[in-house]
From TrEMBL:
Keywords: Lipid droplet. It is found in: Lipid droplet. One of its GO terms (biological process) is positive regulation of triglyceride storage. One of its GO terms (cellular component) is cytosol. It comes from the Eukaryota. Pfam families: Perilipin (PF03036). InterPro entries: Perilipin. This is PLIN3 protein. Belongs to the perilipin family. It comes from Sagittarius serpentarius (Secretary bird).
Length: 112
């Protein structure tokens, strides 16, 4: 999970969503009330679940470690094959707009 969260694409997307969420909460008092209530509910459920799940996680720890190692290696390979994962969302959007604009200009020139 940490390795995925540290991918530039994922972390920049999370930052964008977090900023939008905070801005929306700040701008709309009714939405803020709903979000605050939802956050408290999620926190309570998480705390209750954590205590119940901990014994199961302890039992499964060797299997989780093996799965984590496999996932980590797979993510490394994926990162090599998809360099896009190392770019921030803003750059991907900018590059995509540039590419589409260039292709549209090429198509326009070809039609002319």
């Amino acid at each position: 999970v940490n390795q995925v969260a540290n991918l530039t694409l994922v972390s920049s997307a999370c930052d964008m969503v977090s900023t939008a969420y905070a801005s929306t909460k700040e701008s709309h008092p009714y939405v803020r009330s709903l979000c605050d209530a939802a956050e408290k509910g999620v926190k309570r459920v998480t705390e209750a679940t954590a205590s119940c799940v901990q014994p199961v996680l302890t039992t499964l720890e060797p299997h989780v470690a093996a799965a984590s190692e496999y996932a980590s290696k797979s993510l490394d390979k994926l990162g090599e094959k998809l360099p896009l994962l190392q770019k921030p969302v803003e750059q991907i959007l900018s590059d995509t707009k540039e590419l589409v604009s260039s292709r549209a200009a090429d198509a326009k020139d070809a039609v002319s």
